[in-house]
Design a protein that fits this description.
With about 230 residues, the chain is α+β, with helices and mostly antiparallel strands. Helices cover about 30% and strands about 25% of the residues. The protein has six helices and 13 strands.
Length: about 230
């Protein structure tokens, strides 16, 4: 009996390995185009918020005070390298796997081992918080106006994502730069619940229109007004 060429066996193996990846991407794209809170429309007036996308992580940017909600305590000035940044009137928030967050601030930092570990799942998660100025809208930054009640629900979801020590967030971990910090978070990270899925959950919890599952940055950003197409 003739043996099958080694190349055929390798091709079959690669196909078996690739099938779950393709299935995951397809499911993510499908979840990203199916709307939750489909009847939601932006109000003419309200609280202006932003979503940022660095190609890997999405984050939510909120005013330091609005609709009865204040973020003066996050980050605490002593939790960042340069407390002078506390004068900025906006705060950025994101959630994710500790190792993935700390080791992959950008695409050049991505490592296969880090991605696989995060995809398998971990309860070692962090909230990323920064002092920022009001961002300008563009391809990687989108603005949304929400009603005060919606904003308060969004803020409550974000607050609940912190693993609090009493009434205050747990001790900070140094951030990427001089104006940000990480805090221990609640929740389990996995391929099913990524940092971008958390952003989508936050919007859905607030009652805003968003995909039913948003594991990738694009699945979040597609629901937000793109100023370059307006």
């Amino acid at each position: 009996m003739a043996r099958k060429p080694a190349g055929s066996a390798i091709a079959v193996l690669l196909l078996l390995l690739a099938t779950p990846v393709f299935g995951y991407v397809a499911a993510g794209l499908a979840g990203g185009v199916i709307p939750a809170n489909g009847g939601w429309t932006a109000p003419g007036r309200g609280v202006r918020i932003y979503v940022e996308d660095n190609g890997i992580h999405t984050g939510i940017v909120l005013p330091v005070r609005a609709a009865g909600v204040a973020w003066d305590d996050l980050p605490a000035p002593g939790d960042v390298r340069d407390p002078r940044h506390a004068r900025h009137g906006w705060r950025s928030f994101g959630w994710g796997d500790r190792a993935f967050y700390l080791r992959t601030p950008g695409w050049r930092d991505v490592r296969v081992a880090t991605v696989l570990r995060a995809a398998i799942g971990s309860s070692d998660t962090l909230m990323h918080v920064g002092f920022v100025s009001e961002p300008g809208v563009g391809p990687s930054v989108r603005a949304v106006t929400v009603r005060p009640a919606e904003y308060r629900r969004l803020a409550a979801f974000i607050r609940a994502s912190f693993q609090a020590d009493g009434s205050a967030p747990a001790r900070a971990i140094p951030g990427y730069g001089a104006s940000d910090a990480f805090y221990v978070a609640n929740g389990r990270y996995s391929a099913l619940r990524t940092c971008n899925a958390w952003t989508g959950e936050a919007f859905r919890a607030a009652g805003l229109k968003m995909g039913v599952w948003t594991p990738f940055p694009w699945t979040v950003m597609r629901w937000l007004p793109d100023p370059t197409n307006m």
